[in-house]
Structures are given as C-alpha cells and as structure tokens.
Design a protein that fits this description.
Strand order of the largest sheet: 3-6-7
Order of helices and strands: EHHHEHHHHEEEEE
Number of strands: 7
Helix content: 40-55%
Distance between the termini: 72 Å
Strand content: 15-25%
C-alpha cells in the first residue's frame, strides 16, 4: 500500500491482468497523446458520479483508501523522485550516445569532405580530367553497339540500353 490504496476483488480467482489491460485501454487510452486526456476525464467523471470506474465494476473490484501518515508520504515521494531521477539519467545517457553516433558518421551536408570519389562538377578539383572521371573509360568498359550516348566536352553524360562488361550484359 504505497499510497494508502488497496484493490480488493470480489471474484475468485481475481482477474487483475484483465483489470490492468482495461485501465490501460479505457483509463489512459493506450497512452496516446490527447486520447488519454479524453479517456481519463471520462473515467474521472464516472468515478465522481458513481463511485466506481468501469473496469472495477466490470471485473468486480473495489478500491479501498486508507489515510497515510507523514512517514508514508515521505517514502512515497522519495520513491517517485528516485524514479524520476533515474528516467532523467537514462535519457541523458541516450542523448549522449546519440551525439557520439552523430559525430562518428558524417551527415548528408558534410559528405563532400569525406567523399573518396572526386566530384566531376567541382572546378577546384586539380584532376578534373573527364577521361579519369568517366567510369566507362577509367575501367576499360566498352559500350555495346546498341548503346546510344550523348556526349559533351566533359565526356559521356547519359548511356541508354546496355553496357557490355566482361562476359555479361548489364
């Protein structure tokens, strides 16, 4: 009895798991934002009006409340604060690991500085030789007769149909 509340069942065997799922679904709306506000307010208004929630009525439960003293309140508050502090520490550790992960891998904006392949459109590239940047010429790939190429002064810009590589057609 952490908060001076005790759930008592009038049925044998008690169906605590069914009650818990019903509280989760009808009481807190599966934890969905805005939905839980509606379900919790409906459950609260029914509790005020009838003295029972729908899940307690359906499964034969009653909730008994007992007065709690100062020591009991202090212990309950300490447990709540400890759980809150633990959740903050776990969240901080998660954010730290995400930051390490982001620093380990380049973002999309920074890929140019990590790229091993020169950009053919980069005018500052000292090796901006179209022959070196054209993969067909660089790797000795010969287009088949059925390939139509459009070219400009910097080399081929588009290949259509098939390319003959070694013994296969790709």
């Amino acid at each position: 009895m952490l908060f001076g509340l005790r759930v008592v069942s009038s049925q044998q065997p008690p169906r605590y798991l069914n009650r818990a799922f019903s509280v989760w679904f009808r009481g807190i709306g599966l934890g969905l934002p805005l939905v839980w506000l509606i379900t919790a307010s409906l459950a609260h208004s029914r509790l005020k009006r009838t003295g029972l929630t729908s899940w307690d009525k359906d499964y034969g439960f009653t909730v008994e409340a007992y007065p709690i003293g100062v020591i009991h309140r202090t212990v309950a508050a300490g447990i709540i604060l400890a759980l809150f502090a633990a959740s903050l520490l776990v969240g901080k550790e998660h954010r730290t690991s995400l930051a390490k992960h982001e620093n380990q891998y380049p973002s999309v904006e920074n890929t140019q500085e990590y790229s091993a392949v020169p950009n053919p459109l980069d005018n500052e590239n000292p090796n901006n030789n179209p022959t070196e940047l054209d993969p067909l010429k660089k790797y000795g790939i010969k287009p088949s007769n059925s390939v139509q190429q459009q070219t400009n002064e910097s080399g081929p810009t588009e290949c259509r149909d098939t390319i003959q590589m070694g013994s296969g057609i790709y």
